[in-house]
């Protein structure tokens, strides 16, 4: 992969993040001007409420924009890790059932134990995501050949369907829980606030650092286990650390934004086509691409759902479903 093309990709993604942020701050129930964006950001940085109504609208959009960046980056990074670990081009937290497992754990906590705090959501989501990941991997490893891409995908799809049905079964008889979390189930960043972001930020930072540390080992794993062992890579530890990082990133986001699907599928696939399979570049650039995708999806949802809004999870699913079909047809279920 040429250094020039890689540099252009990096510059393009960084520019894309900036444009996505501006669009997110500018559009919604009220469209604001660039001057109002500057006024709103300046007032917010100074810790005061803006006087102009447009600038006030900008200040109200800052938390959801920040959460969209954090959540999109984390989901894309989680998807890239899962694709690298399983060598499966259609692996992502949604397809492998991790999102739905985290969602089921949170919904059960709400319905049966009356939990209300983001901190409790977080630990339930982590527990549900970990148990689901272990279950899917074990089911996908049954039979000759171990955990092949197609078996993991089928196990994840079946698990997602089963757990999704359980989520509905828990919520349907409980009107109060359904009213509170019906939008959360779809997935979106409309309920962003600084308190919940402060709760998940340490886990996102830790998961990201572990992912970047694992990048050289994941490159070796792509050459096959025997070659990786010959290069001195501890394959078991590398897989475990990368898997834990991916699950933590996904579960933390799901706890506060709901189960947003397809971000972890689309973004790493596109980035891989642009810069190649080197995980040292794949992982950070996937994070940038995920931030762009989810921020734009949230902005589009506000525009097409005016005067209300369409949740970002619906927008990503609408775009992601055709992408999944295209990837499956092109890859013919080959391992990465």
Automatic annotation (TrEMBL):
It is found in: Cell membrane. Its main location: membrane. It holds the Pfam family FecCD. GO terms for cellular component: plasma membrane. GO terms for biological process: siderophore-iron import into cell. The keyword Transmembrane helix applies. The chain crosses the membrane at residues 62-82, 94-115, 121-140, 152-174, 194-219, 240-261, 281-300, 312-329. InterPro entries: ABC_BtuC-like, ABC_transptr_permease_BtuC. Keywords: Cell membrane, Membrane, Transmembrane, Transmembrane helix, Transport. GO terms for molecular function: transmembrane transporter activity. It is a multi-pass membrane protein. It comes from the Bacteria. PANTHER family: FE(3+) DICITRATE TRANSPORT SYSTEM PERMEASE PROTEIN FECC-RELATED, FERRIC ENTEROBACTIN TRANSPORT SYSTEM PERMEASE PROTEIN. Belongs to the binding-protein-dependent transport system permease family. FecCD subfamily. This is Iron ABC transporter. It comes from Cryobacterium arcticum.
